[in-house]
Amino acid sequence: MPGEGTRPRVRHAGQLGRDDGLYEGGDGSGDDGEDAARPETGGSGNGGGGRRAAGHGGRRGRPRRAPKTKKRRVLRWIAFSLAFLILGTGAAGYLWYEHLNSNLRKGERSAGNGAAKKKAPNAAGQTPLNILLIGSDSRNSAENLKLGGSKKSVGGTPLADVQMLLHVSADRKNASVISIPRDTRVNIPACENPDTHQKYPASNGIINETLRGGPGCTLDTWEQLTKVYIDHWMMVDFSGVVDMADAVGGAWVCVKQDVNDVPKPNVPGGSHLRLTKGRHKIKGEDALKWLRTRHAFESDFGRSKAQHMYLNSVLRELKSQNAFTDTGRLMNLAETATKSLQVSEEIGTVKKLFDLGMQLKDVPLEKMNMLTMPRIPDPKNPEAHVLPKPGAADKLWALLRDDQSLDPKDRAKAAKKAAAGPKAGAPASLGVTVVNGTPGDGQAATEGRAGVVRDMLKAKGFTEADTSIELGSALTTEVTYPHSAGAQGKADALSVAKALGMPASTVSETPDGAGLTLTVGSDWRTGSTFPKTVEDDSDPLEGTESVNGAKTDDCMDVYWPYRQM
């Protein structure tokens, strides 16, 4: 800078903001003689002085080259360090991501005998999301054995003691969770265990046995029963429940009385859940005890309700913690979830699981309804087993197939919209195939039943009705139409059902390959009038255990023998 007692410097690149050290050559060339105007480092302030001879060390007034070389070295180190940091962070992120992916255990979505087709997208290109949640009672690890069961159970085929279907509507505005009791008798399709390759023929048995053929077999059983296409399954065992409960930070539960679920005379077992009356935040092994409690909550149906209350509380906790958007929370949950869960292979990456979670975060809790399937005692074993309740269960499955909310107000709006759809074709123009499915309950078929019902249809004007030469199997009578027929196919199927006095809940969509079909189930073995009951018109939320996601004051009743502390 110019100063008193000095002569003004000639303006040069350095004074214009240009850094000489970045542009000058190492031999001093390119200076254009500007060094003559620079003050000598040893001058007296009068601006005098001249150049030193080259043989005496170069230009006397010019700064040494070392500082510029050092500057360039610093810049290089900064650039190198930044590059290393960026690449290192990226590599660490990639390795962590791959680590999480390697945690996940995967399996095939279906065992090959699914009986439903994915619903066509809505106008916005969205489809419903259905996920089967399975709780395994496996003791085939030290961690699981420690948490429950005996050594005799090690190595045995695990049972699917918890089965819930999570349904999220196509527009992601409502969701439902439906539990099927573990002792429900159903038709189980033929399955092959993916690990042992042991084959199991089709049978009529208890639904928790389906895990013998792997989670895909459980999924196929649900699809055959409900005709609802299931996109994915997720399975967790005892130790996984404990780890996930800890990762979430616990969930609030409530009991109306003190509870101590321990073995009683003639009633062995018990979860050993011990809580005083009121609300409690539980996690870890206490969470597992809560989810396993059956005797103190009187039955498997009480246990299902307690499980729904816990799941609702977990969702509330995650939303209150901003877990869907908090990176730190997500990382912790991701680590635990990938170690705890086994999933169907099409969602077998962290990204896909994350995307799945993002589809759930915006569903309002007041639009989240959970319930246990309506059921009746099984005539073969009324003390221990149940069957889906004719009418009420069928109506529930129909709501899921049609992607309808369980909220009665939402359903009323949907009914008005459906009334404006296509009209059914003339009865004489519809070809209907009638199948004898009366062996659905495991008993012998009612001989000639398909022909009797065919003649009933002909009398109603369905002159193209005919029978199938092959037997079917259905617990309940149903009318099905192919997926490709769309709204028109549904309208035609509804007209067949109406002609025979069957409720709309008996109509469902099936994969393409078969036309309009009436399968006569074991619920209609005889007679010319469909066995309509009062329950057929009941709401599926009535008469069963239901929990709404927005309710925070639900409490479990404790069965009186288990109220002593």
Can you tell me about this structure?
The chain is an alpha/beta fold and 565 residues long. It is 30% helix and 16% strand. The strands form seven sheets. The protein has an eight-stranded mixed sheet, sandwiched between helices. It has a five-stranded mixed sheet with strand order 19-18-22-20-21. A two-stranded antiparallel ribbon has the order 5-8. Strand 6 and strand 7 (199-200) form a beta hairpin. Helix 2 (66-103) packs across helix 8 and helix 6 (284-292) runs antiparallel to helix 7 (300-320). The protein starts with 19 loop residues before the first helix and ends in a 17-residue tail after the last strand. Mean pLDDT is 80; it is low at 1-60.
Give the distance, in angstroms, between the N- and C-terminal Cα atoms: 89 Å
Oligomer: single chain
Strand order of the largest sheet: 1-14-9-2-3-4-15-23
Biggest pleated sheet: 8 strands, mixed
> What's the Cα radius of gyration?
36 Å
The number of E-state strands comes to 23
Helix content: 25-40%
User: What shape does the CA trace take?
Assistant: globular
Would you tell me the overall average pLDDT?
80
Structural class: alpha/beta
Percent range for β-strand residues:
15-25%
* Low-pLDDT regions: 1-60
Number of helices: 13
